[in-house]
Amino acid sequence: MPAPILRPDTPLFIVLNAGSGRSDTDSVRREIETICEAAGRPVRILLIDGPNRAQALAREAVESARAVGGIVVAAGGDGTINTVAQATLGSGCAFGVLPQGTFNYFSRANGIPAETSAALDILFTEQPREVQVGLVNDRVFLVNASMGLYAELLEEREAVKREYGRSRLVAFGAALMTMLRGHRQWDLHLAFHGTERDIRTPTLFVGNNPLQLRQVGLAEAEMLEKERLLAAVALKPAGMFGLAGLLLRGALGRLGAAEGITSFAFESLTVKPRTLSSSRKPRRVKVATDGELGWLDMPLLFRVAPESLWLIRPEVAPELEAAKQ
Fold this sequence. Notes:
The protein has 2 domains: 12-133 and 307-323, Probable inorganic polyphosphate/atp-NAD kinase, domain 1 (Rossmann fold, 3-Layer(aba) Sandwich), CATH 3.40.50; 139-304, Tumour Suppressor Smad4, CATH 2.60.200.40. Helix content is 36%, strand content 30%. The protein has helices at residues 25-39, 54-68, 78-88, 105-109, 116-125, 149-164, 168-180, 210-216, 220-226, 240-251, 318-323, and strands at 12-17, 43-48, 71-76, 94-99, 128-131, 134-136, 139-141, 144-148, 186-192, 195-201, 203-207, 230-235, 261-266, 268-273, 284-289, 292-297, 300-304, 309-312. A hairpin with a 2-residue loop joins strand 6 (134-136) and strand 7 (139-141). The two termini are 35 Å apart.
């Protein structure tokens, strides 16, 4: 599919999450409208003001943008960006991001600044460029997807954030709390690149974000930048202190050197329980995609999407380049 053609007056259809990050939604909305008016850019803001509204508003934004050749924009954290990207993928529309979350891995890896005014300037001045999308059973993920302990960590993190606020320190504390409660081990059968492997692990993590992978110290980050690949990381069975040590290694950027992990790059990976028989109904498992939790049927199929997302971004991402040093 060819790149969308943008005009100086191309309208923006912005899906804004009222619950993302620490910004005041009204002030962010006023800032967006003021800047767009000054730039002569038509804008329509669709506010996610309640639960289960994001998907419907994302679809509405895409339909409206397609009708007039507009840009679909996600204003929120990685979860909001994921929902809007899911609706935009394959539509032919250009996609934009106004980061409003805590970690913002997707925007940071693509050179999109956290400040709303600077991010809008990217939308006004840059062109759409192809960005790789990951799929797990046809559900989009831009940053990562996971099952097992890592998904539990994300679930606990969101619960703690609702009570104590959003910060990286709160996120780290929530992870420690989850590990203190114990965790189950998964017996999984993996198939990729014509090979098969059985593993026992508390968690399976699949990354699609080279910045995140570089920050925790995984060599597969460089492969993702050069080829259409994803990266799988499985932790070996370990006790509470062993897992805490791996968490600390990741925070220090040295996870790749740890003996307690298995990691590899792939284009397509099938995951199923070793005990799943063909006569039984598929087993459902909780999976996190860019921090959003949902239930999917086994087997899980992780793969690179055949279509790219046409993201409006600069050619160079400064933070990603700095992480390579």
